[in-house]
Amino acid sequence: MATLLHRLGLGAVRHKALVMIAWLVAVVALGVGAGTLSGTMVNTFSIPGQESTTALDLMEKRFGSASAGATAQVVMEAPGGGRITDQATAGQVAQVVAKLQKLPGVVSATNPLDPQAPTVSQDQSAAYSTVTYDVKAEQITPEQREALTAVVDESSGAALTVEARGEATQESGADIGGAGEILGVVVALIVLAVTYGSLVLAGMNLLTALIGVAIGALGITTLSGFTDLQATTPILAIMLGLAVGIDYALFIVTRFRQELRRGLPVPEAVALSVGTAGSAVVTAGLTVVIALAGLSVAGIPFLTEMGLAAAATIVVAVLVAITLVPAFLGAVGLRALPKAARQNSTDSPVRDRGFYRGWAHMVTHQRVLSLIVAVAALAVIAIPFFSMQTTLIQRAAEGSSQAKADEIIAERFGPGFAGPLLVLVDGTGSPAYATTVREKISALPDVAFVAEPQPNQAGNATLISVIPKSGPEDTATIDLVHAIRDDVADGPDADVYVTGQTAVSIDVSQKLDDALPVYLILVVGLAFVLLVLVFRSLLVPVVGVLGFLLTIGAALGATTAVFQWGWLAGVVNAETTGPLLSLAPIIIVGILFGLAMDYQVFLVSRMHEAHAHGADPRAAVTTGFRQAAPVVVAAATIMFAVFAGFVPEGNDTIKPIAFALAIGILFDALVIRMVAVPAAIAMLGRSAWWLPRWLAWLPAVDVEGAALERQVPDDARDIEEHAHAA
Fold it and tell me: Which among 289, 284, 294 is positioned nearest to 522, based on CA atoms?
């Protein structure tokens, strides 16, 4: 692979203008595609084959498309202890309902004071109107949503409190481009400028990463016109693509500067950098891609889609790093070095390594204490992980209209009204059997109210609304869903299904929770095999895997403490606290796995190389550490800044994920890779690099291109002659 990448780097330098134009054409083409072919993003989650999803499909067939339309609840409350049924207040309620019925896209808006189907609280202080649209939630336009909000705002006043909640009020897109994200990019630029000592080189590094991100994001946007994509998919791809794009370019640029300082001509320095550091980039990128694509093992379509989209962005980032970055470096040439270094090729290849040498010396000499402190610190931070809860129900931001509506519903009607269950009795025998189903459900614990069965016109399906006593996220509600499924059997010519937003959330969360251990075993196994191949050792991979597990535990523990328990929630601008979104843990595990393996490979491969050249075990750790640690620290700082930039202003879906990735990178780079790994390898001594004879047949994976460095490329002379001729 190193030889192939070496040639690819040469080709990029020789045809740098063509390479740059090709990438520019790709950006423009995808931009046109995104502008003309893009579709709407969805903000709902479901899994085909689950009982709740099957029931929703049946409902749409039996009751028409209106049953699948998005809904909103407009909640009205009489102020000052008054009654919603008082004449004056009732008149205002009627006016609000009349306005709601005339809204664009609205099929119906129920009158809560209708004697035939009232929706008034028991103390008659509040009521709600159910507003139904003719399309699903993701298809509601911003103008339609704004029209609903306008009616709510103008109707609310001293005489009547009006708030709105429900899926129709929730935006389907993920916000990007806020001040936090921009600040993260600025921090990355500053770190690059300090690392390189050149603003031009830093800008080039950032520009190539942005080009890769643009292609990935535009490609996803174009694809949305052909299939339903989750609203969080592009923001996740952008966040990850930007972070790894900057880091991968950093590794290659850093190696390029080292080769220039050794006295190599620009074309050969570029080619050798792509062949060596580029090999590590490809290996690291492949690891991340496999981890993200591996999300498909969960068997959940929307998770597979998110993983593949993010993996495609990583592939683009790798391709940019090994083609576009070399082309830019060929154009920058010796200007990549400070002026003084351009005239003296024997300058030290890396500056300011005294700190890292001293740090490595301290960690390796106090290795037992260092390892104990590092492990204990992360183990304590990981404690909240064992109480982590997940849900698919997105909570409204505190102080928003949705949150106020939820409070009124919970206080006046009961917490169960916020998440009613729908029981579908399907089949020709459903009208007769539905009465029996209603009686059985009424006898179950945690049931507040069971509505009268509502058959369809064809008489082959019946709907029953069930109001639990507990809220949608409560364990009692989850137990009720399982109780209905277990205790209420199918009848003659009638099948019973439990669905509704709460049931869908329970089904998806359960599926994700079951998939997480399987996925964790997959990525841990992959990490072990990869590290065995790279380092031809058994104990070093064990150290790497255990370090990864500590990183995951600490990241999820800290995220649970902040976003579920509410610790320091104000610092990260967490507008809501409670159970984490169900898909967050498995996504966090996948991404952190890939990134942790990146740093393990870049750091330990230098130690392995030093040991292979005859250094004693402790000296090999110190030598490899001082060579790789500066770049790893810079890369981790950049990645932390990028991920952290999505926390302050990110939406409720992406915020915990971005926080976990940022804090996970911090723990992995500064605690695991900078303390625990060198301490553990120093403790193991020569046995760290031991490989049993029966595994000697394993292929050697040269991720650093060491073999390429030891030989003079056959075309080196031709390269230099070509450069002079040019």
Answer: 294
What does R_g of the chain's alpha carbons equal in angstroms?
30
Cα(352)–Cα(262) distance, rounded to whole angstroms?
A: 18
Average pLDDT over residues 7-34: 92
Q: CA 480, 482, 483 angle in degrees (round to 5)?
A: 60
Residue 3 near residue 714 (C-beta atoms within 8 A): no
Which residues are bridge partners to 83 per DSSP? none
- Count Cα atoms within 13 angstroms, Cβ side, for 141: 7
Classify residue 29 by burial, with Cβ atoms within 10 Å: 0-12, 13-18, 19+: middle
Q: Where are the alpha helices (DSSP H) in 113-198?
A: 142-155, 179-196
Cα 162 to Cα 83, 99, 123, 151, 265, distances in angstroms: 14, 13, 17, 9, 72
- The token pair at 87 is 């004449």
555: which strand partners?
none
Q: Which of 49-58, 362-371, 459-468, 526-535 has the lowest mean pLDDT?
A: 526-535
Q: Which helix (H) or strand (E) holds 300?
A: none
Q: Supply the DSSP string of 640-653, one letter for each residue.
A: HHHHHTTSTT--TT
Distance in angstroms (rounded) separating the CA atoms of residues 203 and 633: 19
pLDDT in tens, 647-679: 877 667 788 999 999 999 999 999 999 999 999
User: What is the distance between the alpha carbons of residues 623 and 610, in angstroms, rounded to a whole number?
Assistant: 7
Tell me how far the alpha carbon of residue 230 is from its chain's centroid.
12
Per-residue b/e over 47-85, b at no fewer than 16 CB within 10 Å?
A: beebbbbbbbebbeebbeeebbbbbbbbbbbbeeeeebb
The count of other CB atoms within 10 Å of the CB of residue 216 is 27
